[in-house]
Write a structure and sequence with these properties.
The longest helix has 15 residues. The chain has one domain: TIM Barrel, CATH 3.20.20. α5 crosses α6. The radius of gyration is 19 Å and the shape is globular. The strands form 2 sheets. An 8-stranded parallel sheet has the order 3-4-5-6-7-8-9-10. A two-stranded antiparallel ribbon has the order 1-2. With 310 residues, the chain is of the alpha/beta class.
């Protein structure tokens, strides 16, 4: 199976990254006031020597649903989890039921966010399960309109209350588009010092924003959560993050369903006797990404875990 990731990468054409720059407005990075074009956000123009110094040789690939990696801050995170972005009226509308099923089938990481409106049900499911709290990894995120020191802390405590937890395993700045990145980042680092957050990360950050954090002398985020699948490879961001020791968490690994009928994928499903969703999840795992596919029905919750033995 080692050839699937390479096969998909070669034959599936990535979409243009134009339009993804909504998350990368230079006016939002207070530590760097030099305007940059869209290429700067997704291409760091490394030399060949720089690229040879990346960390791809040490990529950890998930072998089963319990596989994990140690982040740059020492916190261990599962490589496979469940995305809880919004409810799906075509399947279960009760996120708590989705969580119950997922926990029953071995899921231990759950990705939610304040803007998803799923934190309350996520917390209730954790309270009801027999799985120990320390064995569950909860990721939630700060929304764009809550940036800044006071706003970030207030929003965090609101999320903590909704989740009914004593701490959150990973708290992400969901996008740099809310501005005040360094003040917001400092606020979350302070929450970590207080023991309320175990690991601090970001989402939808371009290279410029990560460089701004680095140049400010602050610790680099443990994770950058970005959209990743064969049509959104973001190879230069991936290379940059690996060089800097930032783990990559890929959301929308199933392309929001838009590419599940792609002819190449359909042909491969016949060859490997798997679904297109399983192929795409396998692509993410073989590339060493932490992956968080959504699944709202029992069959999909189970099917998405059957990606390690073929």
């Amino acid at each position: 199976m080692v050839g699937i990731a390479m096969f998909l990468t070669i034959f599936l054409k990535p979409v243009s990254l134009q339009g993804a720059t909504d998350f990368c407005d230079p006016s939002n990075l207070e530590c760097d006031d030099k305007p940059q074009g869209p290429d700067h956000y997704f291409y760091d123009h490394e030399t060949d020597a720089d690229k040879s110094d990346n960390r791809e040789s040490s990529i950890d690939i998930a072998k089963n649903i319990t596989s994990y990696i140690a982040l740059n801050d020492g916190v261990k995170i599962p490589l496979f989890g469940l995305g809880l972005c919004c409810e799906d009226t075509n399947h279960y509308t009760d996120i708590g039921e989705v969580m119950r099923l997922a926990l029953e089938h071995g899921y231990r990481m759950f990705d939610t966010a304040a803007v998803f409106n799923t934190e309350i049900d996520t917390g209730r499911a954790i309270q009801k399960t027999a799985v120990k709290r320390e064995d569950i990894f909860v990721v939630t995120k700060l929304w764009n309109d809550q940036h800044g020191t006071k706003n970030a802390k207030k929003a965090f405590h609101e999320s903590l209350k909704k989740l009914s937890l004593d701490y959150i395993d990973m708290y992400l700045i969901q996008s740099p588009s809310g501005g005040h990145i360094l003040d917001t980042y400092d606020a979350i680092l302070e929450l970590k010092e207080q023991g309320l957050v175990r690991s601090v990360g970001v989402s939808n950050f371009g290279i410029q924003h990560l460089e701004g954090i680095k140049q400010s002398g602050r610790p680099m985020p443990s994770v950058n959560q970005i959209e990743l699948h064969p049509w959104q490879r973001k190879e230069d961001i991936v290379q940059y993050c690996r060089k800097e020791g930032i783990a990559l968490m890929g959301y929308s690994p199933l392309t929001r369903g838009e590419k599940l009928k792609d002819p190449i994928l359909l042909k491969m499903t016949q060859e490997y006797k798997v679904s297109t969703a399983q192929l795409l999840i396998r692509w993410s795992l073989q590339n060493g990404f932490i992956t968080i596919p959504k699944a709202f029905g029992h069959d999909h919750i189970v099917e998405n875990t059957h990606v390690f033995d073929w």
